[in-house]
């Protein structure tokens, strides 16, 4: 059952989120949490997310816009180290509020509250026509990289903030997906270095059992298949559809974070 559920989620979500550039980790982690404790579900999801990012680079990397990767990526990587280090220090922080729904205990931490509010603001920018016509000043790219990299290292929710910035600089859907993939791989590498140090020192949980590693490998393979499926659909994607998909996922993620369900 575990392989069927996790593999199916990884396949479908990977295909859909190729267009938006985010959402795989956010939506896959709850699926892992069904079968394993949260301290194992989080690092397991991070491993799948990083493997998927590398695979995106292999498939789409040549389509990425280099100037954006440099101006956005360098501050993103630098701040990802800072965010991941802070996660190690804040591990186990008390939630702001906790409640139970359908037998599931939901809780919202300070990080989730800040991220949820930011993401909902960015969702409005993708769904309200006035904002979709706006273009972002390229001078703000380093700031966008710093913010998304920091939260990527801190909570793993890097893609939503990154998409909000990249969606306003005139990238084609293919360039958008490719640039997102390269930037995700850079940030994933940075935060994983810090996470591994946390695992070895006992500050964070870790994937340990052979069955867990088998599930991680299977979910990664299914995510790879999802990338290939999404790649075939990319030529049919328009900027308008991209905004609706990105905005819709932003709403889901933002509301999920604020409610504590994600």
Task: Describe the secondary structure blueprint for this structure.
Blueprint: H1 2-20, H2 24-35, H3 38-60, H4 66-90, E1 97-101, E2 104-108, H5 110-127, H6 129-132, H7 141-155, H8 159-166, H9 173-200, H10 210-233, H11 239-259
Antiparallel strand pairs: 1-2
What does it look like?
- By secondary structure, this protein is mostly helical.
- 75% of the residues lie in helices and 4% in strands.
- The protein has a two-stranded antiparallel sheet.
- It is globular, with a radius of gyration of 17 Å.
- The chain starts with a helix and ends with a helix.
- The model has no long low-confidence stretch (mean pLDDT 77).
Quick take:
This protein is mainly α.
Helix segment count?
11
How far the N terminus sits from the C terminus, by CA atoms, comes to 22 Å
Widest β-sheet, arrangement of strands: 1-2
* Outline: globular
Please describe the biggest sheet, giving its number of strands, its sense, and whether it closes into a barrel: 2 strands, antiparallel
Q: Structural class given helices, strands, pairing?
A: mainly alpha
> Mean pLDDT, rounded to whole units?
77
Radius of gyration, in Å, reads 17 Å
Are there runs of 5+ residues with pLDDT below 50, and where? Answer: none
Assign a percent range to the helix content.
Answer: over 70%
> Order of SSEs, N→C?
HHHHEEHHHHHHH
Topology, number of strands: 2
Share of β-strand residues: under 5%
